[in-house]
Amino acid sequence: MSKGKRAVHNRGGNVKKARAREQAPAPAETAVAKPPIDERTGAAIRRARVERGLTLSDVASAASISVPMLSRFENGQSTASLVLLERICAVLGTDLPSLFSEVEQARGEAQLIKASDQMEVVRSGTKHGHTYRLLSYHKGPQKFFEPFLINMDKESESYPRFQHPGTEFIYMLSGRMEYRFGDKTFLIEPGDAFTFSGGVLHGPEKLLDDRIQFITIIIYAE
Asked: I need a labelling partner for 167 at 20 to 30 A (CA). Which of 22, 55, 217, 219 fits?
């Protein structure tokens, strides 16, 4: 084979490799950022309080501060003095160095999953003709929420009922459906937002259009 032909062949191979790289799914982009110090401190206090099974009133009373003030500290809306932080830590059975150590380790995350990389997953409604596209995922041991893009059509022979912990939110994108929640039904149309307790039996009752599409978010964290 001549040098010219080999060169053409190699260029073709490089083009194929470049195309393969372009077509390969890209990983989700994640950015890490530090929230403001007040928010990180408040979040650390709240985690410690919840882990110990204490209410806002329990901690506020023992630390000799008001419940609204403690709530503002936890939400990062006010800055607690070192004296107040020390009293709160004493109630929670920790100390300032431990609290600040946790505050410095705290991070916030942002995740971007391109449309071409969103995965279709199997859920209990899959066998009934529903398709679920997972819009975000959490790698940690505990799921705080799950957002899905759901497509349904009238070809589905039956509509399942669901029951799960947490709160569910539905935002209707296209089509109309009647949705059952316990012993009530609700008409959901494009642009409507529907929020309800996941522990009550729920699910689509009737599709009023041939195809519907909506986003649902299941929030597990309390």
From this structure: 55
Residues 144/219, Cβ–Cβ less than 8 Å: yes
List pLDDT tens digits, range 117-158. Answer: 888 777 666 666 678 888 887 655 567 888 999 998 877 656
Contacts of 58 (CB under 8 A, 6+ apart): 49
102 and 171 together in one domain = no
Q: Where are the alpha helices (DSSP H) in the chain?
A: 3-23, 37-51, 56-63, 67-74, 82-92, 96-105
Task: Provide the residue range defining the domain that includes 136.
Answer: 113-219
Measure the CA–CA gap between 63 and 90, rounded to whole angstroms.
Answer: 8
| Whether 129 contacts 155, CB under 8 Å | yes
DSSP class of residue 161? -
What is the rounded distance in angstroms from the CA atom of residue 119 to the CA atom of residue 107?
26
DSSP state of 157: S
pTM confidence score: 0.51
- How many structural domains comprise the chain? 2
What's the CA gap between 22 and 221, in Å, rounded?
A: 38
